[in-house]
Amino acid sequence: MPNPQDLKTPGLTPFSYHSDRPLFRVNSGIPIGEALSHASDLLHVAKVLAEDAAMIRSTDRYAWASCYLQDMSKAVIDDVVKVLEAPGSNPA
Hints:
Elements: E1 14-18, E2 21-25, H1 32-55, H2 60-85
Antiparallel strand pairs: 1-2
Helix pairs in contact: 1-2
């Protein structure tokens, strides 16, 4: 059973689809703690931008930025879930 600190992203999760093809993919080999910390930072900024977009009508660009940040965050979290659900990686 691997140590949770040794688990790394597999790099299997694509995001930002255009014409049914992903433009980006999560990189492999990132420690999952760092990946989750980064996803948390992305979600924080997305939340702040969404709040601004909700309060000020002329800030639709904030809404789009928030949407893209949420897409990236979801991809990172989904990639971490893949490694955590992989056989033999459950530390419990």
